[in-house]
Amino acid sequence: ATGGRALRWASGRAPARGLRASPRAPTAMPSWVIDRYGCNEVLRFTRDMVFPIIHFPNEVIIKVHAVSLNPIDLSMRRGYGATALNMKRDPLKLKTGETEFPLTLGRDVSGIVMECGLGVSYFKPGDEVWAAIPPWKQGTLSEFVVASGNEVSFKPKCLSHTEAAALPYVGLTAWSALKQVGGLNQSNCSGKRILILGASGGVGTFAVQLMKAWNAHVTAVCSHDASTLVKKLGADDVIDYKSGNLEEQLKTLPLFDFILDNVGGSTEKWALDLLKKWSGATYVTLVTPFLINMDKLGVADGMLQTGVTVGSKTLKHLLKGVHYRWAFFMPSGPSLDEIAELVDSGKIQPVIDEVFSFSEVPKAFLKLEGGHARGKTVINVISRQ
Fold first, then answer.
1. Which domains does the chain have, with CATH numbers?
2. pLDDT confidence bin for 373, thresholds 50/70/90
3. CB-count exposure of residue 315 (10 Å: 0-12, 13-18, 19+)
4. What is the pLDDT of residues 279-293, one digit of tens each?
5. What angle do CA 56, 59, 65 make, to 5 degrees?
């Protein structure tokens, strides 16, 4: 081959060079978006959503294989939290005249890394990953999504993309409430009595499994038709809130060390009386007025009202010998790493109610809106997951 190349040059003719162009970077992608807040009819499919761009060195672009819906997607579709989220999107108000629309919903993602920023060393193209994207960023109901490397984790090896997509958002929400806010962990849970209100929802089913993985005694509250599922997940006692006065039923049981409240409403008026007094017992609720206050009162007054509310409630209950806390979803790749270990060890499994195709996103939203799901509503962006 070397001799042939020399002969061609010797003849005075340069070898022909085929022209090769770099593949053109995509500029648009299919997505489900909303252009205004409202009911299900605001969902719109487009093939012209702007392709995500890496703006910071620590970001990655993920090719989405599967996503799942959460109650926050329904709330955001209606405009819940718009004031606070828009402030987070543009805190210095630099984008004058621009809005958050078109807005892509969806927080959970399981997929494959396609591109990495220059500062990313932990991941490489081709890695199978999962993540929960914060609500102030464009969501996952798209062909591709951009995420911070700090929000991403390697997908559990034992799960398909469809299964993995059911866990990140609810897992991190429960992790925030139980571990980061509530102070529970593998070394201090053994023998503790844990009460989970709203145990059959996405956060509740994860919380039941996590507390059992950490050797706690779990009392779960749900409806009768969900009791078999919750028992299968490991709950020691299951209380049907429809079978009588829930407060009276729970008062017949020994007092609790920790309560996770996924229900809110009037529950906290009596639930804290079920805790052991002056023992460090803690009540954590995921139902808070923070975003609602900001939507109604504006940023400054909303934050002030929220601070006054949580401060007064914390002091009031502390004087009664129990701790009162609010918890929120917190994106965290390192926490997902720990959750993935629990999944791969068989201690936590996804709970899926129904799977839809990407063309059926409005139908999936209606399913979630109907309530009473036993597990997550998952959407396959790429079929055959």
1. 28-168+351-380 (3.90.180.10), 182-326 (3.40.50.720)
2. confident
3. exposed
4. 999 999 999 887 787
5. 145
* pLDDT surpassing 90 at residue 58: yes
In the predicted model, what is the mean pLDDT of the chain? 91
Residue (of 179, 178, 318, 180) closest to 261 by Cα position = 178
pLDDT attached to residue 307: 87
Among residues 349, 377, 343, 353, the alpha carbon closest in space to that of 226 is found at 353
Q: Which residue has the higher pLDDT, 23 or 208?
A: 208
Question: Quick one: average pLDDT of 11-34?
Answer: 65
Task: Measure the CA–CA gap between 218 and 172, rounded to whole angstroms.
Answer: 19
C-alpha to C-alpha distance for 106 and 137, rounded to whole angstroms? 10
Nearest to 39 by CA among 94, 82, 2, 76: 76
Residue pair 317/338 in contact (Cβ under 8 Å)? The answer is no
The answer to whether the beta carbons of residues 30 and 46 sit under 8 Å apart is yes
Structure tokens at 170: 């609810």
Query: 103 — phi, psi (to 5°)?
Result: -110, 130
Q: Can you tell me which residue has the tokens 């402030």?
A: 87
CA distances from 102 to 41, 85, 178, 185, 253 (A): 14, 14, 35, 41, 50
As a whole number of angstroms, the distance between CA 374 and CA 204 comes to 11
Band of residue 17 on the pLDDT scale cut at 50, 70, 90: very low
